[in-house]
Design brief:
- This protein is α+β, with helices and mostly antiparallel strands.
- The chain has a five-stranded antiparallel sheet with strand order 4-3-2-1-5, with helices on one face.
- β3 and β4 form a beta hairpin.
- About 20% of the residues are buried.
- The mean pLDDT is about 95.
Length: about 140
């Protein structure tokens, strides 16, 4: 198995659990084998040590020097347009859809069920129509 995402200075990662769950941070420095110094200037995460266990590495890397100050990290973040790229990624869209589904009320789920039924009924009708035409030929 070939790895494509490595822990490196400037690597943007997604925090999967903990007090800042769901936010993006940039790795500013590697403390040891288990922890990194991270900073999320545009996501509201203050500079802190964070274990790798609660981070998931993304494909995005920003160009920052070793132990860069917050203003340099912010500049590099905005220059690389990380927030916009993340919003367009399928990973972010899946997370958003999962959250949206979790917030649905019982009535919302009922409306979705009825809409799916109606859609499937229309598709079934069209398929039968096409099959009938194919059988005539």
């Amino acid at each position: 198995m070939v790895f494509k995402r490595f822990v490196e200075i400037g690597r943007v990662s997604y925090i999967s659990f903990g007090p800042h769950a769901g936010k993006l941070v940039a790795i500013v420095d590697v403390i040891d084998q288990n922890r990194a110094l991270v900073d999320g200037p545009c996501t509201g995460v203050k500079r802190q040590a964070m274990p790798f266990k609660c981070m998931q590495l993304t494909d995005y890397v920003i160009k920052v020097p070793h132990s860069a100050r917050q203003k340099f990290v912010r500049r590099a973040w905005e220059k690389a347009e990380v927030s916009q790229k993340w919003a367009q990624s399928s990973w972010a869209k899946k997370i958003e859809a999962r959250q949206k589904r979790a917030k649905m009320s019982d009535f919302d789920r009922y409306k979705v069920m009825k809409a799916k039924r109606m859609r499937n009924k229309i598709i079934k009708h069209e398929v039968k129509k096409i099959q009938k035409e194919a059988a005539k030929k």
